[in-house]
Amino acid sequence: AQSVTQLGSHVSVSEGALVLLRCNYSSSVPPYLFWYVQYPNQGLQLLLKYTTGATLVKGINGFEAEFKKSETSFHLTKPSAHMSDAAEYFCAVSDTTGANNLFFGTGTRLTVIP
Amino acid sequence: DTGVSQDPRHKITKRGQNVTFRCDPISEHNRLYWYRQTLGQGPEFLTYFQNEAQLEKSRLLSDRFSAERPKGSFSTLEIQRTEQGDSAMYLCASSSGLVDTQYFGPGTRLTVL
């Protein structure tokens, strides 16, 4: 079975500071991992994904994440926060053996302080 | 715009009424998913179509819920005899392959009074 744990339901950073959003996963098969961002009253937009290959994945808007199998982690980082990064962020792991549906964490709300 | 679209964006209904939502996926995508998102939670999988075939349903999908994708294009999700616990955002996503990215629509927010 697949599951995701996101540590910290709320994270606040100052504008220009490092963003670190934590995600740990559980999967019985090699995982496919995703980060999505959700702005208020909108659907989810893919930031980045890991399927196979290079463990450091670069996404849109300057975000990146590193797959660490030994730590079962897929933390999301951005070197310098921008006001427009304020949103809800969801980590997800995919069921790769059936419908390929996504199992989401409970989300982390990022606040950027000017 | 060739993204996933959902209609309506908001629906307010009284308990016991039936509601139907529509999802139009990206045109070349053969896979279509429905998720439900309640306040403060991540989306939860409800059901999945490959073309017109409904191949998987979550245990969250009670007998009051039914989904169709009659021609392998748009899909509808119907909730019969709505309950207050059905209040949520209903999200639709589509993809074109086994590990392809799921693209999400803007969602339909349902409020059951």
Radius of gyration of chain B: 13 Å
Q: Most extensive interface, residues per chain?
A: A-B, 27 and 26 residues
Tally of individual helices of chain A: 0
Q: How many strand elements of chain B?
A: 11
Radius of gyration of chain A: 14 Å
N-end to C-end Cα span of chain A? 41 Å
- Structural class of chain A comes to mainly beta
The sequence of SSEs of chain A as H and E is EEEEEEEEEEEE
Kindly report the average pLDDT value of chain A.
Answer: 92
Ranges of chain A where pLDDT stays below 50 over 5 or more residues in a row are none
Tell me about this structure.
The complex is a heterodimer of chains A (114) and B (113). Chain A has 114 residues and is mainly β. Helices cover 0% and strands 51% of the residues of chain A. Chain A is built from no helices and 12 strands. In chain A, strands 2, 5, 6, 10, 11 and 12 form a 6-stranded mixed sheet that branches. Chain A has a 4-stranded antiparallel sheet with strand order 3-9-8-7, with no helix packed on it. Chain A is globular. The termini of chain A are far apart. With 113 residues, chain B is mainly beta. In chain B, the strands form 2 sheets. In chain B, strands 2, 4, 5, 6, 9, 10 and 11 form a 7-stranded mixed sheet that branches. The interface between A and B is medium-sized, with 27 and 26 residues.
